[in-house]
Please model this.
Amino acid sequence: MDNHILPILRQCPLFRQIEPGDIPSMLQCLSAVKKGYRKGETVFSAGSAITHVGIVLTGRVHVEQNDYWGNRTILTQVGPAELFGEAFSCAGIEKLPVNVYAAEPSEILLIDYRKIIRSCSSACPFHAKLIQNMLWILAQKNVALTQKMETLTQRTTRDKLLAYLSRQAQAQGSSQFEIPFSRQELADYLSVDRSAMSSELSKMQKEGLLQFQKNRFSLL
Amino acid sequence: MDNHILPILRQCPLFRQIEPGDIPSMLQCLSAVKKGYRKGETVFSAGSAITHVGIVLTGRVHVEQNDYWGNRTILTQVGPAELFGEAFSCAGIEKLPVNVYAAEPSEILLIDYRKIIRSCSSACPFHAKLIQNMLWILAQKNVALTQKMETLTQRTTRDKLLAYLSRQAQAQGSSQFEIPFSRQELADYLSVDRSAMSSELSKMQKEGLLQFQKNRFSLL
DNA sequence: ATTATTCTGTTGTTTTTACAACAAGGAGAA
DNA sequence: TTCTCCTTGTTGTAAAAACAACAGAATAAT
Model:
C-alpha cells in the first residue's frame, strides 16, 4: 500500500483515535484494496450486492438515486477521507438502492465490511475501536441526512438555495465560499430544475441577496 | 419496572439477540426510567441538551423540525418498540435540532445514552451486544432517511403521494393499508400544502388510481 | 341532545415551477 | 487555431403548487 495515502487515512473518521503507526497493519488485517476510477466511472451500481465500504482517498464521488421515472438525484457528495456505502452494508441491505460514481478521477480504498465489524481474532484490540468509530460515523451521516432534509423540505427553489448556501457558509465558516457542484449537479442535489434554478440565482443576485462567479458564492 | 413492557422490549431492536430473561437486569444497569406523556406533550425540545435515548412503549411520537420561518416538518414517526434520539446523542450533538412530542398518549422508556455505549464494567457482557445492535439501528435509520428522501425529491404532490403510499403498501405487504397520519400530518410529512394535497387525493380517486376512506387507503 | 371544535374536502386566484428551446461563453481535442 | 462539446444563463409558455376562504362532516365537550 502506497505511503501517500496514510496522511489521508489519519483524517478518516474510521481511524479516529487510532495510532497512525497502527494503520498499515490494520489495512492488512482488513484486506483493504486501492482502486482508481476515471471521471464518471461507476464504483458501486444499484441492484448489486454490497459487501464493501469505500473510503475516498483522492477525488470525490457522488451517491445518486434514480427513481422509477428516471429522475436522478444526488444524495450526497463524498470527499477525501470520507466513507460511503457503510449504511447499506451495515443494515444488511441485499441490493444496493443507489449508484455511486466518481465525479472526478478518484482513488478509492475498498474494505470488506464484515472485516470491520467482526473481530478477526479475540486478540485484535483494534476492532472495538473500529466499531465505536463506525457508530459515530453512522450517527454523523444520520445528522447530515437530517440537515439535507431541511433544504429539501423548503417549498420554493429560492428557499432551497438559501438553505443550502447558508449551510455551506456556516460549514466553511465564511460568507464567501466555494460549492463542490456544477449547476446541473446542484440542481440534482436540490431536486429542482436547472434552468429555473439558474434564473432564480440571477434574480437573487440582482436583488443583492448574494453574488457569484462560477462556483464561488458570497452571501450578503 | 412493570412487567407489561417486557413483551414490547423483546421486539425492540436494541435488545435483539438478547435473552428476554436478561432484559430486566439490563434495564437496571442502564438506569432506564419510564415516563408517561399526554397527547401533544413535548418529550425532547429543540435547543436542549440531549443525554437520553427514548424507546416508545405505547403510543407514538413525532420528530419534527421547525425552520427559520416557522415551517413545521414531520421528519419521522416513531411507534412501539422503536427508538428515537439515538443519532443526535451518538453524534455528540450538543443542542438538539428537532422537537419530539407525543402524537397520542404515550409511554416512553428513557435511557442515558452514555450507559449504552460505555461498558459499566468489563465484566458486563451485554454491552458488546448493545453496541452491535445500536450500529444496526443507526444503519437502518440511515436507510429509512434515504427512502424518505426518495419521496421528498419527487417534484409534484401527486408523485410524492404515490411514492409515499406505494412504500406504505410495500411495507405493510398489501395494497390495502392504514396510514398513521391525519391529512395535516401527512402534508407536514411530505412537505406540501394540505388543501392542495387533499384536492390531489380526490383527483387521484376520481381517476381510479386509488381509493380511501379516512386513513384507510387502497392502491389500484 | 346540543354546542363547539377540529378535520377534511372544494374552489378560485396568484405565485412558482417545470419544460423547452436557444444563445453566449469556456474547456478541451484535433 | 479551429472545431466540438459542455456548461451556464435567458426567455416564454404551460402546468402545478401555494394560499386563502369557505362548507360540510366528524369528533369531542357540555
